[in-house]
Amino acid sequence: MRRAAVVRSLVCAAAAVGILFSGPAVAHATPSPGSVEAQIDKQWNQLEPVIEQYNDVHGKLIKNQAQQKKLAAQITPLQVKVDLAMQQVRGLAVDAYKQGSPSALNAMLITGSPTGLTDKLMYLDQLARHQQEQIADVAALRDKLAATKADLDAVTKSVAARDVDLAQRKKAIETKITSLQKLRIQAYGASGADDGPYKTGPCPVDYTNDKGGRAAQRACDLVGLPYVFGSAGPNSYDCSGLTQAAWASVGVHLDHYTKDQWNQGRPVSADELQPGDLVFYYPGSLHHVAIYIGDGMVVHAPHTGDHVRMATIDRGPIAGYRRPG
After folding, report:
1. Which of 61, 115, 300, 322 is most buried, with most CB under 10 Å away?
2. Could you give the dihedral angle defined by the CA atoms of residues 238, 242, 248 and 252, in that order, rounded to the nearest 10 degrees?
3. Model-wide pTM > 0.90
4. Which family is it part of (predicted)?
């Protein structure tokens, strides 16, 4: 009996120690959709400026590389002309070395008259000067283009280095995106998005048959496609890729970068808004853009894990409005 009592005491003591070191069991509740969206918005507002910067730098790199090829294509035939001319000059020099330079006396003996000598010398002089001028013009143009290309090569090298750096940061972004998506799945289920419709009513709300109205209609046609950063279609979009594609459908070019799009349209006020106008968010950073579709509604590509969708215009702090075209 006494031994049993001792054992019970030891068991109770061990249990007490276990409670002391392990603490009470804590139940981990599934985060609410509201708290997940708040986390996503906070983290996404830090990520999206980097994404837009990548779009800007990568776009410049592509343009510079295209310009490099164009300049190289212009320089090559000029270089061929210069090389050919120099070969001709070297040929004349070789002939003069072998045969001796023609003198006025030799020319007179060949022609038989002083008048013929003068005419021949004038003709030879004009021909030589004309040939020199042609060579000089071609060489000058070649040198000018070569200097332009050298400057462009230096700039492109710098842009390429930034592109590599941002590509590395892009990998880090993708890792962060994966963690955000896991939060969405935990809150919403395997779809990673809420069950609400991407369209909340007629889209566009106000239809007009001008370029802006047709651009708004194009954006509405893309509702439901997934968000993929750096993408401008045809199967996925990020925010500036969506607005670029919408306006491209009516023949208006916008760069794939929110800050460039801000500078590519004229300012309008909130009272002047028409379907197709661009709505920019987050004053200072300008890292998100949507397209207005009427009655206080926009279409935009929100963030990873989501889709192109309708939203109220007040979805975030507004920086201003621009009208492309």
Report:
1. 300
2. -100
3. no
4. Belongs to the peptidase C40 family.
Helices (H), 195-267: 211-221, 239-248, 258-263
pLDDT tens, the chain, 325 aa long: 333 343 333 333 333 333 333 444 444 556 665 676 677 677 777 777 877 787 788 788 888 888 888 888 887 887 777 777 666 655 554 554 445 445 444 544 445 455 555 555 554 555 556 656 666 777 777 788 788 888 878 878 887 888 888 777 777 777 776 776 676 666 655 443 444 568 888 999 998 999 999 999 999 999 999 998 889 999 999 999 999 999 999 999 999 999 999 999 999 999 999 999 999 999 988 889 999 999 999 999 988 778 999 999 988 899 999 999 8
- The residue with tokens 């926009």 is 298
3-state DSSP of 278-313: EEEECCCCCCEEEEEEECCEEEECCCCCCECEEEEC
> Rounded distance, CA 118 to CA 91, Å?
25
With b meaning 16 or more CB within 10 Å and e meaning fewer, what string describes 80-95?
ebbeebeeeeeeeeee
Q: Coil, strand, or helix at residue 321?
A: strand
In the chain, the amino acid numbered 154 is A
